[in-house]
Design a protein that fits this description.
Layout: H1 2-10, E1 16-25, E2 29-32, H2 33-39, H3 44-51, E3 55-58, H4 65-80, E4 89-93, H5 104-112, E5 120-123, H6 129-142, E6 148-156, H7 166-169, E7 174-184, E8 189-196, E9 204-205, E10 209-211, E11 214-216, E12 222-223, H8 225-246, E13 256-259, H9 264-273, H10 285-288, H11 295-305, E14 314-321, E15 325-332
Parallel strand pairs: 4-5, 4-6, 13-14
Antiparallel strand pairs: 1-7, 2-3, 6-7, 8-15, 9-12, 10-11, 14-15
Length: 333
């Protein structure tokens, strides 16, 4: 009887996964609106008014998504106060991996000098990559597949941005953000929701392919800005309301909203629809631009390190991106 009880306790499924550390990395080089004025027919006033963006960071020659992900991981590991070898799985949300294969997550695992016992892989959900990776990591921890997962959002969209197209080149920057999720009996991630609708492919994509040594299709990211804008606001406010409902939380209980940093006007419209005042919303889009899958963990790390997000706060992370894909997580931090 005692043995049976002990066996049951030992095999008790962790109730939650918790974020025990965050980290981020931005390349040194800054591309300002003034720089862009020299490259395309645009100006600082137009960019700030329509997007809220002033600067973006761009990778150095030869610097990759994997390099940025590794740097962000070191910071997250340090904050978590764990040894890297305690990590048993690595998931990277990215749409600009270093290679077709191997996965960028395998590169990070090797650079960290660890052997992960539960695997390392990339997830492709464009700008929603980090939300997909968090939802996946949370489920894998709750089902005891893994105990400590390094979850990363990292992208080098400057590689697929056409710097002669003023409609897109003003928006994007490079970067990486990371979080360590660990099994816990204390409240952590309360719930996640992810969605996809491939019928919206035409309004935001990068359809480049390599076939038998030839590059096929348009080699750069293309976008119908206005359609993306409308979809993003609807998706972000919808998923937040649904998730709060599912978790039995009212929107006014949320302490902080950490949205995907696509455009200041998208962030403000979504906040209005959620009845959240802007002083509860973490904003980095002015200094980072849209860093795709990195934008949410970058903003989260900034707000944790500057002391705005504290232990016990209720935090909503949410993102939307090409696919279309979108998703959110509600976290007792
Ligand atoms: C791209 C975006 C900033 C454009 O703003 P907008 O208000 O929709 O502007 P429009 O595309 O209607 O263009 C208005 C005018 O500005 C011009 N314009 C476009 N980019 C410009 C730029 N960088 N500088 C100056 N003028 C510009 C257009 O050519 C157009 O000129 P016209 O009226 O003479 O034809 C906006 O649609 C947006 O941010 N959409 C969401 C994009 C996004 O977040 N994508 C990633 C999602 S994960």
């Amino acid at each position: 009887m005692f043995l049976f009880f002990a066996f049951k306790v030992y095999h008790m499924v962790a109730k939650f996964s918790r974020i025990i550390g965050t980290g981020s990395y931005l390349p040194e080089r800054i591309l300002s609106n003034k720089d862009l004025q020299e490259m395309v027919d645009t100006n600082d006033e137009w960019i700030v008014e329509r997007t809220g963006i002033k600067n973006r960071h761009i990778v150095a020659e030869g610097e990759t998504t994997g390099d940025m992900a590794y740097q962000a991981s070191l910071k997250a590991i340090e904050m978590a106060g764990i040894e890297a070898k305690q990590i048993d799985m690595i998931i990277i949300g990215t749409s600009s991996p270093d290679f077709f294969f191997p996965a960028t997550a395998c590169y990070v695992q090797d650079r960290l000098g660890i052997k992960v016992s539960k695997g390392a892989f990339d997830m492709q959900a464009a700008c929603s990559g980090f939300m997909y990776a968090v939802a996946m990591a949370d489920s894998l921890i709750k089902t005891e597949m893994a105990k400590t997962i390094l979850v990363i959002g990292a992208d080098t969209l400057s590689r697929i941005v056409d710097y002669t197209d003023r409609g897109t080149c003003i928006l994007f920057g490079d970067g990486a953000g990371a979080a360590i999720l660990q099994a816990s009996d204390e409240a952590g991630i309360l719930g996640s929701q992810i969605y996809a609708d491939g019928s919206y492919t035409s309004i935001l994509n990068c359809e480049t392919r390599i076939d038998s040594g030839k590059i096929i299709g348009h080699p750069y990211l293309t976008m119908d800005g206005q359609s993306v804008f409308k979809f993003a606001v609807k998706a972000l406010s919808g998923v937040a309301k649904e998730l709060a409902d599912k978790c039995g939380i009212t929107l006014d209980e949320i302490d902080w909203v950490v949205p995907h940093q696509a455009n200041m006007r998208i962030i403000e419209s979504t906040a209005r629809s959620l009845n959240a005042s802007m002083d509860k919303v973490i904003v980095t889009v002015d200094q980072h631009g849209n860093t795709s899958a990195a934008s949410i963990p970058l903003a989260l790390d900034l707000a944790v390190r500057d002391g705005r997000i504290k232990r016990g706060d209720l935090v909503l992370l949410e993102g939307v991106g090409g696919g279309f894909t979108w998703g959110a997580s509600l976290i007792r931090f």
